[in-house]
């Protein structure tokens, strides 16, 4: 029996030593996630539309009288002032017509004086019975006829004077003159059409088509945003933004049934003469004052069959799922319309490592820098689900 006891003791000792040498199992570490804090941030919604530039004072210069063109006083493309001469039409026929009209006026005035004197004599004669009442009436009628003839002659003189003045065509405003479409020696008339154009330097307009949905959003009585709250910026063809902004001052009185849009116009200053009529640009409508909105990084937003959601970390460092409704995207962030409160910690990085209920180790990421604008105005984007990004 002693040998068996010795063998058993040896076996137990060996197992005990083996148990002492076996390393202890390590506890599973909580996965690390990076979170961002949902916070209220300012933003300025904006939306762009294809547009063109027009001038409020785009004048077609035409001839008001007929005649041979004697002179052109401008260089095409020059900046000119109101009252500067542009064209001279041969004035000789109109000077002659004015002289004839003045002569007719002198004749009419002489006839009037004679008729007035005869009428005065008639007044005395009719009282003494030397002429009949019928003769007296004839003298009175003659006096009235000559008075009317004088007025007609005066009008003819004024008309002839105007025609003579029209032979010198002058600039009606300050602006830049276009190409002359006639040459010296041509015979021009009111039927000749446009001789040249004159575009005012200031007073430009940006013209664009506004979706009826946006119009309804900013013209509702209970709307928090009105047309007065919107400023219009212009992006030029080279991608740069025009230095000056304008305001909407005109809406068309009808919506285009084929496009569902209506024409809108915004006035723009043009002190540097940079804008020209016909220039194609992009009109950017944005709010004058920023709004406040709850934002989270776009990278935190996820989408599945149940809808849009984020994975957040609660006060006990456990992962929870929060369903939400998002709005416009602003730079790297997205607006949250409902479902989330400010201060919530949403997981931006490490989503693939966890699921609701998981205990995690939390590290905070710096929030994405908000941008000043977004590609949509309030009322133009449905506040529905936003496609989320998957963890990279």
Automatic annotation (TrEMBL):
It is a lipid-anchor. Residues 59-190 form the Multidrug resistance protein MdtA-like barrel-sandwich hybrid domain. Residues 98-125 form a coiled coil. It holds the Pfam family HH_MFP_RND. It is found in: Cell inner membrane. Residues 371-392 have a biased composition (Polar residues). It comes from the Bacteria. Residues 358-392 are annotated as: Disordered. Residues 204-286 form the Multidrug resistance protein MdtA-like beta-barrel domain. This is Uncharacterized protein. It comes from Ketobacter alkanivorans.
């Amino acid at each position: 029996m002693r040998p068996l006891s010795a063998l058993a003791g040896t076996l137990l000792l060996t197992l005990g030593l083996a148990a002492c040498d076996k390393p202890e199992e390590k506890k599973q570490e909580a996965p690390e996630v990076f979170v961002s804090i949902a916070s209220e941030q300012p933003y300025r919604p904006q939306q762009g539309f294809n547009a063109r530039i027009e001038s409020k004072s785009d004048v077609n210069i035409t001839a008001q009288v007929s005649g041979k063109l004697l002179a052109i006083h401008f260089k095409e493309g020059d900046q000119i002032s109101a009252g500067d001469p542009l064209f001279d039409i041969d004035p000789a026929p109109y000077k002659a017509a004015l002289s004839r009209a003045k002569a007719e006026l002198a004749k009419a005035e002489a006839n009037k004086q004679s008729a007035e004197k005869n009428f005065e004599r008639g007044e005395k004669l009719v009282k003494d019975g030397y002429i009949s009442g019928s003769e007296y009436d004839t003298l009175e009628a003659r006096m009235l006829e000559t008075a009317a003839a004088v007025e007609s002659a005066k009008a003819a003189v004024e008309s002839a004077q105007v025609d003579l003045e029209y032979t010198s065509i002058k600039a009606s405003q300050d602006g830049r003159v276009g190409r002359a479409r006639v040459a010296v020696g041509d015979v021009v008339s009111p039927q000749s059409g446009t001789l040249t154009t004159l575009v005012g330097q200031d007073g430009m307009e940006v013209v664009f088509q506004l979706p009826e949905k946006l119009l309804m959003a900013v013209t509702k009585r209970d709307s928090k945003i009105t047309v007065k709250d919107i400023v219009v910026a212009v992006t030029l063809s080279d991608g740069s933004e025009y230095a000056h902004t304008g305001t909407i001052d005109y809406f068309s009185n009808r919506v285009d049934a084929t496009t569902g849009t209506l024409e809108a116009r915004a006035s723009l200053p043009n002190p540097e003469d940079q804008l020209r009529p016909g220039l194609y640009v992009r009109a950017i409508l944005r709010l004058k004052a920023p709004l406040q909105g709850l934002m989270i990084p776009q990278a935190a937003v996820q989408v599945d069959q149940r809808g849009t959601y984020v994975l957040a970390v609660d006060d006990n460092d456990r992962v929870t799922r929060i369903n939400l409704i998002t709005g416009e995207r602003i730079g790297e962030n997205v607006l949250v319309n409902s479902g989330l409160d400010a201060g919530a910690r949403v997981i931006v990085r490490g989503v693939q490592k966890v699921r609701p209920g998981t205990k995690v180790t939390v590290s905070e990421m710096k929030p994405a820098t908000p941008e000043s604008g977004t590609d949509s105005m309030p009322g133009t984007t449905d506040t529905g689900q936003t496609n989320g990004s998957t963890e990279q």
